[in-house]
Amino acid sequence: LRLGAFDRSWSSPALASSETISAIGCAAITTTHLADIDHGTWSGRTFAEVETAAPEALYQWLANPAAGTPDGEALTDVVCRIAIWLDQIASRDGRCLAVTHPMTIRAALIHAIAMPENTACAIDIAPLSTTTLSFNRRWRLQEIRRA
Prior knowledge:
Elements: E1 8-11, H1 15-24, E2 29-30, H2 47-53, H3 55-63, H4 75-89, E3 96-99, H5 102-113, H6 117-120, E4 130-135, E5 139-145
Parallel strand pairs: 1-2, 1-3
Antiparallel strand pairs: 4-5
Helix pairs in contact: 2-3, 4-5
């Protein structure tokens, strides 16, 4: 990844995020605000395992991922969590880097540019892609780029 220089960097607490930060070659503050959506009882299970154990629940979730998984976090909860972080960094000068997860990026877009949940859930966020937001009195989406 060619990302340029950053004044501040943050990372989700997930191992994949810390490994990505390490590969980028910068230090980052770990924050739970950037954590992936909690998939509850489905955490760590494959789609095939969930489909075998709870096919109807899987189909309901695929039809409406914003509702969350059984005992998991709803997308509105992730939006509230990421909104706190975005509002904190909005007034800071300089470039900021956040290494996080697709659903957390979608939640950021919901908050930052008032994107509807169903629209945000329809965006594919590829591994190692970049989403660039800018702030000048309000958030703006500049770019989503695949790696």
